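Hey all, quick one. A colleague (J.T.) asked me to put the 6-O-phosphono-beta-D-fructofuranose job into the tracker so the inputs and the structure tokens live in one place instead of scattered across chat threads. No bug as far as I know, just bookkeeping. Sequence used:
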Amino acid sequence: MKIKSIGVLTSGGDAPGMNAAIRAVTRAAIYEGWRVFGIYRGWEGLIMGDIKEFTSSSVSNTIQRGGTILKTARSEEFRKPEGRAKAFENIKKFGLDALVVIGGNGSLAGAQILASEYDIPVIGLPGTIDNDLYGTDSTIGYDTALNTIMECVDKIRDTANSHDRIFFVEVMGRDAGFLTQNSAIAAGAEAAIIPEDQTDIDQLADFIGRGIRKSKNSSIVLVSEKDGGAMHYAERVRQEYPEYNVKVSILGHLQRGGSPTAYDRILASRLGVASIEALKEGQRNIMVGIKNDQIVYVPFSRAIKMDKPIDKELINVLSILSI
Ligand code: F6P
């Protein structure tokens, strides 16, 4: 079927660069002569029919803005078949021939289910700060969040040093440790505690000792939010080593905000244009990603289900550089 009209939505946690992706999808589709409809609040908006036609100027002055102009949500109703049936009714009502879905794991899982139940081509774009989608080297928002965390840790280091304190800094990422591991390298932290690698109490002592040994009298350990996060490890250290002055800093949602980096803007722009190319080629039910700086198509099943491993080399680099 020849595509004449598409819908675009953002779903799940917002990520810096989503606006650049919406802009690219919108303008690349209009360039093809297609109509573009912005769907508000993700799957929720598709169910409710909260949908408006976009022009090229709808996305003006957005490339530099964090968050998502389309808003986003985590939809419970879309998990149910009745919710998806309502969504499909609106796809028909607004005459949408295809969808572009920008989001993380859960959002692309939703896209996969919809595409398996109804005859509608869906293209996914990886939009999440977590970088946990298989088949793409980076996700939209990851680089910005990494830079935000690095800047925060730089600031924490000033006060940690001044007070001779040990800081456990909690980083987002859900089940994945990419943000934690790489921001630890970028900020010169003593260690990273990530879900992909076990950490016991003896290792903790070693992590902290690394900082103390370097005559800094302070240590910074980055901790992924999973399994109790920074509080859990800080408590353990307080009990085992009461001589240390331990503090916790949970970075929280500030990691999701801010103007996207050049890397994220360019990535989002390339992936957005590529999503329209993919639809033109007749592709459906794939995520468009980037591998070795080349655009790749990854079937939803692989992008969502396969575990994306942390390169052991990164773990090695941090441990060598924190002696
Ligand atoms: O998936 C992005 C993310 O920020 C995760 O890193 C985090 O675990 C989660 O979303 C937080 O979700 P919410 O904003 O709904 O609290």
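Adding what we noticed when we looked at it: The mean pLDDT is 95. The chain is about 45% helix and 20% strand.
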